[in-house]
Amino acid sequence: MPEARTPADIEADIISRRRELAATLDEIAVRVHPSTIAGDAKAKAFAAVDRTAGRAYVAANRAVADVRAKFVDEDGSPRLDRVIPVALVAVAVVGGLFALSARRRGR
Asked: Is 3 left (phi over 0), alpha (psi -120 to 50) or beta?
C-alpha cells in the first residue's frame, strides 16, 4: 500500500516541479532567441564553407599529383618524352596569341 503524502511533501514536489519548469522555459527562451538562431545559422554556414574548401583542397591536391605523375618519374626526374611536346604546344599557343595581338594593333 502506498504511503500517504503529507501536505509538506506535496508542496515540496510542487516547488521542485516549478524549478524544473523554469529551467526548461529558460532553455527554450535561449534556443529560440534570434541571436541564438542567427549564431547557429552562421556556424552551419561556416561549417559548410569549411567542408567545401576542404573538398576543393583535396581535389586540387589530387589533380596536381596526377599531373605531376604524368610529367615526373618516381625518382623526381622530368619525363622529357612528355614535357617537350607540352612545352612546344605552350610556346606555339603563346606565339599565336602574340601574333594575333600584334596583328590587331597593326590595324
From this structure: beta
Q: For the segment 49-70, what is each residue's pLDDT rounded down to a tens digit?
A: 999 999 999 999 999 999 888 8
Cα(17)–Cα(38) distance, integer angstroms = 31
Domain residue ranges in the chain: 76-107
C-alpha cell at 13: 514536489
Model's pTM, two decimal places? 0.48
Q: What is the mean pLDDT of the segment spanning 81-91?
A: 92
- List all residues 6 or more positions away from 26 whose beta carbon is below 8 Å from its beta carbon: none
Look at residues 58, 55, 60 and name the one whose alpha carbon lies nearest to residue 68: 60
Q: What is the distance between the alpha carbons of residues 102 and 46, in angstroms, rounded to a whole number? A: 48
pLDDT of residue 2: 64
